[in-house]
User: Fold RING-type E3 ubiquitin transferase from Capsella rubella.
Amino acid sequence: MENLGRTTSGDDVIARSGTLLGHDLLQHGGLEQQHTQRLGSMETPGETASGDDVIARSGTLFALDLLDCPICFNPLATPIFQCVNGHIACCTCCAKLMNKCPSCTLPLGNYRCLILEKVVEAVIVPCGNAKHGCLEKLSYCKKLAHEKVCDSYVLHCPAPECNYSAFHLDLYRHYTSCHKASSSRFRCGQYDDALINIREQVLVLQEYDDLPLFILQSFMGAHGVHVAVNVLAPSAQGLWELGYDLIYQRGNERFTHESEEMTRIQRVSFEAPVVNYMYIPYSSLDESLVVKMQIRIRKSRGDGEEEEA
Ligand SMILES: [Zn+2]
Ligand SMILES: [Zn+2]
Ligand SMILES: [Zn+2]
Ligand SMILES: [Zn+2]
Assistant:
């Protein structure tokens, strides 16, 4: 099959390879003989179907592109169709093409390509987030669906100039070991002073080593500063039901903000929040760029447990 417009660098080859378990799928005889051949090899005197045997019956497949639909380039999944000339298409493309093969115009959709359906199930690849700590290994045809969910768990280090990203526990540990000096401590449920330089914008708060990172951020608007608190945590998980309170006081002026929810973010964003922030007009700040406020991070009052207590 042609290589359809893909580049193949060294890294790419590694990224685009997978392990094929059940190598006998590719032996002469195809589907009919597959069963007897597997039995045959297991019945050979002295051979057992142990873990070693599984390894012995696996191989590495380079050019995983071969397992992508040649029309839409998505990984092929069951059912896979072919025309009488052997051109293949995924089920979605088959419907879009009104069951007409784009290569030879013969009908497409009457014949399944059963051997390729077996192959896309049997080729095992690591999740694309392996570098972030995901240990999942999946059938090639299930990779995309898994990665859509898995991507929402990857967090990016909030330290400026740091490109580290990982799953949450690794990210929290990384922050403690590499950037602890630039974070501030707090105690859950208590008010603590927080000094934020309105030009530096970001203050990272961590209760103890290796625990979640809270991001106190200020945004300079036309007439004042917007201050918000988010938690760096996977968006797909309902880990914490947290709220926060902010107090800023200067002389007789007092600004407060109480929030019963905290937005989970995967990375620090420099776009000003449109909801859930405290606003302090410039006229209420002194000349210094450092604003001293009080922050309390606590359980959300909307939390069912607390209401019953
Ligand atoms: Zn397709
Ligand atoms: Zn065709
Ligand atoms: Zn994953
Ligand atoms: Zn970092």
Q: What stands out?
A: The two ends are 66 Å apart (CA to CA). The helical segments are 10-15, 30-43, 51-56, 91-96, 114-122, 143-151, 168-179, 304-308. The chain has two domains: 10-151, 154-308. Residues 154-308 form a domain with the Apoptosis, Tumor Necrosis Factor Receptor Associated Protein 2; Chain A fold (CATH 2.60.210.10).
